[in-house]
Amino acid sequence: MSASVKYTLGRIGLFVVVFAGLWPAGMNIFLQLMLALAFSAALSFFLLRGWRDEMAEEMAGAAERRRAEKERLRSALAGDDERSEDGR
Fold first, then answer.
1. Which of 50, 51, 59, 75 is buried most, with the most CB atoms less than 10 Å from its CB?
2. Do residues 18 and 39 make contact, with C-beta atoms less than 8 angstroms apart?
3. 19-27: which pairs have CB atoms within 8 A and are 24 or more residues apart?
4. Contact 47, 14 (CB under 8 A)
């Protein structure tokens, strides 16, 4: 499972748990949603740090691969690509 999926599911799960914890309080549903959103965001900063770092590394690797491929294509389009001795 990719790090992005794990982190996203972790955030959603944390939101649901906090919202369910606020349910017995008997307050307005919109207030419960807003509090659950705020508390789950704060908790995820601490509880999901490992998954967030893993996701950031995965995204940085993908960006680096895209950058390298973009540079390779640019040089090929400019005619700067290295050709073999027999002209292929």
1. 51
2. yes
3. none
4. yes
- For residue 81, give every residue at least 6 positions away whose Cβ sits within 8 Å of its Cβ, in sequence order, or none: 75
CA dist 36 and 78 (Å) reads: 53
8-state DSSP, 25: G
| Average confidence (pLDDT) over 36-41 | 96
* Dist CA 66 CA 30 (whole Å): 41
Q: How do the domains of the chain map onto residue ranges?
A: 3-77
Q: How far apart are CA 46 and CA 35, in angstroms?
A: 17
Give CA–CA dist 81/79, Å, rounded: 6
Helix locations, 1-88, DSSP H: 3-22, 29-47, 49-78
Give the Cα separation of 34 and 48 in Å (integer).
20
Cβ contacts of 54 within 8 Å, gap of 6 or more: 3, 6, 7
Predicted structure pTM score: 0.72
